[in-house]
Write a structure and sequence with these properties.
single chain, 453 residues, alpha+beta, BirA Bifunctional Protein, domain 2, Rossmann fold, 2 domains, five-stranded mixed β-sheet, 28% strand, globular
Length: 453
């Protein structure tokens, strides 16, 4: 069965080196986490799965990696300076600050139950910066609160460097920063997080078709690439649309506390390119945008066949990578009772997502011949370039198996005394715990087949 509570995952993450509390030795910092040896591998594998699906498997999407710090004007014309805020309520009795729309009861403090609350006020979510020797503390730049806007302002750069006909997209994975009032749910809502977003530029009369197309493509990816059961996912349309949206909805995963967003799909119409382009009055922009007198580039598209010049509509897919990792771990987490009455915890991850692809274990660490054979097998597996390979040399085979069950290693290769006699090793499979003897010469091929399943 999957994890019953997020606390199951929190404990596993600390114990096995997936996620640590940020600045932990100094008491931590709310909404900040550090990713340990296995966390960085799982995150990387999720990123790679997304990039492979969005860029390498298609011929109509290009990649981008934009700066984390950006000119203040980007966020003025995107609407973030005036619209990107949450309603903040403070308890006058205990001083707790809360996001009003996430309170259990908007008339009572979530912490102490007092009804003596301040009126809600807009709380700016962007993190301002003072950069340069003459800034004198004034905010003149921002840490980006999303990757999307930095994609829009590079629309012309990408199109000039790599010409495309519509539709085409730009994909970007990277950090974003939001001054959250109340980070929650472990890594579900943080102040520093990672997004995987794709902006798909389409003709204005084809936006609805591509909005529906990307809803289906992205839902299928969660099922096929990450291993999330279809019944644990749903698509929920937004009841209230953001200022930029013509249509929007969320792919939601059923967390232990209920369904919540893991990816947004948005029809942003021509708001974004229209907001950042110069010569707005020449382009018949349909969305309501701020008059822009600062942009130096015309962010429009010229149809090579008709010569028509217009601002494309944008269909956006926006996934939280940290949330994806949390959902994957929750779904893969399994507690099992074994025939001998003992129990084990195993992460039944898709093999290509596993932080460690294979572990090589010499049965006795004080037998140099076994250790040498194990080292040779490890080196051969590394040549496959399939990800992290580990050599275990603690001498306790049972503990080694349990540790690799918990971090999701799909297969362990045990080198024992019989190996010296006939050149075979034991292949132990994570999910079934079945063991088989195979020749050393067959190990690389078998492991490669397993991690590609």
């Amino acid at each position: 069965m999957p994890a019953k509570t997020i606390n199951d995952i929190v404990a596993l993450c600390k114990r096995r080196g997936f996620i640590f509390t940020g600045s932990e030795i100094y008491g931590g910092l709310g909404g900040a986490y550090d990713y340990g040896p296995y966390g960085v591998e799982l995150m990387k594998n999720i990123r790679n799965a997304w990039w492979d699906a969005m860029v390498y498997s298609r011929n109509d999407i290009e990649g981008l990696d934009a700066a984390l710090i950006s000119n203040k004007l980007l966020w003025k014309y995107s609407g973030h300076e005036s619209n990107f805020s949450d309603p903040l309520v403070e308890c006058k009795k205990c001083g707790t600050r809360m996001r009003q729309d996430k309170m259990k009861d908007q008339t009572k403090c979530d912490n102490c139950g007092s009804t003596d609350l301040t009126a809600p006020r807009a709380y700016q979510l962007m993190m301002g910066l003072s950069i340069g020797a003459t800034a004198d503390g004034a905010i003149n730049a921002y840490l980006r609160p999303e990757t999307a806007t930095t994609t829009y302002v590079n629309f012309k750069n990408v199109l000039d460097a790599k010409p495309h006909k519509l539709p085409f997209g730009i994909a970007q994975i990277g950090k974003a920063f939001r001054n959250e009032i109340s980070p929650r749910g472990f890594v579900f809502r943080m102040r520093e997080f990672e997004q995987a977003e794709m902006q798909y530029f389409v003709r204005p009369d084809e936006d609805e078709k591509y909005f529906e197309m990307w809803k289906e493509i992205r839902r299928a990816w969660w099922i096929n690439s990450l291993g999330i059961p279809a019944e644990k996912l749903r698509f929920t349309p937004h009841e209230k649309l953001a200022h930029y949206a013509k249509a929007a909805g969320d792919i939601e995963y059923e967390f232990p506390d209920g369904f919540d967003e893991v990816e947004g799909i948005h029809n942003r119409q021509d708001f974004d390119l229209g907001s950042h382009t110069k010569a707005q009055d020449e382009l018949n922009i349909q969305a309501k945008v701020i008059e822009n007198k600062d942009s130096t580039v015309k962010l429009s598209y010229s149809d090579p066949q008709t010569g028509e010049n217009f601002v494309p509509y944008v269909i956006e897919t926006a996934m939280g990578v940290n949330r994806a990792m949390l959902a994957v771990m929750l779904e893969a987490y399994t507690e099992e009772t074994l025939p001998d009455g003992k129990s084990r915890v195993v992460l039944k991850l898709k093999p290509w997502l596993a932080p460690v692809k294979a572990a090589v274990i010499p049965l006795a660490r004080n037998v140099p011949e076994l250790v040498e054979i194990a080292n040779n097998i490890e080196n051969e597996l590394r040549k496959l370039h399939i990800g992290r390979i580990e050599l275990e040399n603690s001498g306790n085979i049972g503990k080694n198996y349990r540790r690799h069950d918990e971090i999701g290693t799909p297969v362990c290769i045990t080198v024992d005394h019989q190996t010296q006699e006939d050149g075979t090793v034991t292949l132990r499979h994570r999910d079934t715990m079945e063991q088989e003897r195979i020749a050393i010469s067959d190990v690389a091929k078998r492991v490669l087949n397993i991690v590609q399943q």
